[in-house]
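Recall that a protein's primary structure is simply its ordered list of amino acids. Everything else, from secondary elements to tertiary packing, is in principle encoded there. The following example makes that idea concrete.
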Amino acid sequence: MSEPIISFRGAVKEFPGRGRVGRRSAGVRAVDGVTLDIAAGEIFGVIGYSGAGKSTLVRLVNALETTTAGSVVVDGTDLTGLSEARMRPVRAGIGMIFQQFNLLRSRTVAGNVAYPLEVAGWSRADRDARVAELLTFVGIADKAASYPSALSGGQKQRVGIARALATNPRILLADEATSALDPETTADVLALLQRVNRELGITVVVITHEMEVVRSICHRVAVMERGRVVELGDAYQVFSDPQQDVTRRFVASALRDRPSPAVLRRLRGRHPGRIVTVRIDEVSGSSAQVMEVLADRGVHGTIVYGGITEVAERPYGSLTLELGGDEAAVSAALDGLHAVTAVVDHGTVAAPAAEGNDR
């Protein structure tokens, strides 16, 4: 990993509580002892359910909130105790996009993108050139004279991204930036964020409650729960081998590649043979390896459920198969499958196995 551009060290953010415990106010720890590094040039995801502390964590990066304890270092500057005047150059290197776009309704698209440049004191000619460049980059140059009310949600977010890039930041913070968008528009915006990262070299920090966003674009991910980072790692590793229950729930919501108990009951009703679910990834087993194992044992495998997708541009998913053949051959095939990948044996309709999950 390259040098960190953002470092949290034991970061705590506590908000005063309304109640009292004994003689002291009962505060709320939105961020509770977080230590992690975000590398320059990566797309880093922070995921958690509502109230996990993820939005507060990102607000510590641009000092919209200050730490109660611990430290946050951004691009070499420790934010602890910085005055507002000394924070300005740090914030100038950070762009931010929001769930609800936060565009100025009284300004045109071009006027919204130009606004931070006006605040920074750019000349009119330089502003016009930069705005034209950015609107072309995000694909809405034809909307320069339009007002936000005339735009779709995806177009509004493109304006938000162009505005966030106006002053050439090194860091882009995206706080639930796709939550208000439909799936197709979400995919377009995520692809644009990948372009921002790849072509401009900007570090992107994505705050989300949607594992699909992490699956699509993130290099690494931190999973938060009750203000703490409970799981941290390469996005592919977190998907393929989640360690915490909360992470497993997120992964299941994004992949939907395994039969639920109700679906499994229906599958057993239609397929009397041995039903198994096998994991497919680039580390343990590919679909070709799985089929080769079955063929070598004289077992026929019929795919009855599952799906393979990409996580961080690498294949991952599972296939649920009905295995056909004599009992000895099927048992040998199961042993062979266990040697190359993770397997859940669901048994047969006559002898169903106890429900299991290898994740």
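Residues 7 and 73 are 5 Å apart (CA to CA). The chain is about 35% helix and 30% strand.
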